[in-house]
């Protein structure tokens, strides 16, 4: 058998190694991609560790180099690995993500994916509404509102700083609840009886200032996602907030249909 034939996918056994098989209708590179993805997500290949070389994976999966490169290319497009010229492929730190197709609190969105979340209450106080806060909550500028600042953790690492503003009577009720373990959306609906209906969302990129960098464990000037969200109960705006997410650890996703 020639060397080229030895490494070709057609030479792969019907019941291949590592669960990869040539008799499956699923392409070989897709099967290998899924095997590698599972190993990345379950920690078998830890973040920033070097992946096996192409030659090692060719031997392990009994496939050709082009098949391995297709699988690695897919993983790179997903952001699960990155390549270093002359050194090979390395595991990227996976980003958590939240879909924008549903109005959900942070904990609500993360828990189904198996993430551990909790919050540290940074401050909770009555303040005068700025012009922007007053406009969003349809109050007079300078009116009393309640500000709640929290540091949100994902798998025990700081992921965002949330600065939220509420009409005074709602904020005073919220601060009596367990804001470390429970989403404010859940409290608003289940405990305070507000039926949340929709939200207006704006997203932009900003640079971390000294305070945000200190809370999030990142250098000043590094990129953040800033989400401005105004949430309604019926037609009444009751929750206006700025959410500052680490740009290297979190992403929002949105499906857009063409009709």
Question: Key features?
Answer:
259 residues, alpha+beta, Arc Repressor Mutant, subunit A, Chorismate lyase, 2 domains, 6-stranded antiparallel sheet, two-stranded antiparallel ribbon, 9 helices, 10 strands, 28% helix, elongated
Structure description:
This protein is 28% helix and 32% strand. With 259 residues, it is an alpha+beta fold. It folds into two domains: 3-91, Arc Repressor Mutant, subunit A; 96-253, Chorismate lyase-like (Chorismate lyase), CATH 3.40.1410. The strands form three sheets. A six-stranded antiparallel β-sheet has the order 4-5-6-9-8-7. Strands 1-2 form a two-stranded antiparallel ribbon. The longest helix has 14 residues, at 28-41. Mean pLDDT is 87; it is low at 1-15.
Blueprint (SSEs and pairs):
Layout: H1 3-7, H2 28-41, H3 54-61, H4 65-77, E1 81-84, E2 88-91, E3 96-99, H5 106-110, E4 117-128, H6 131-136, E5 144-154, E6 157-167, H7 168-174, H8 184-191, E7 196-207, H9 210-216, E8 223-233, E9 236-246, E10 250-253
Parallel strand pairs: 3-10
Antiparallel strand pairs: 1-2, 4-5, 5-6, 6-9, 7-8, 8-9
Helix pairs in contact: 2-4, 3-4
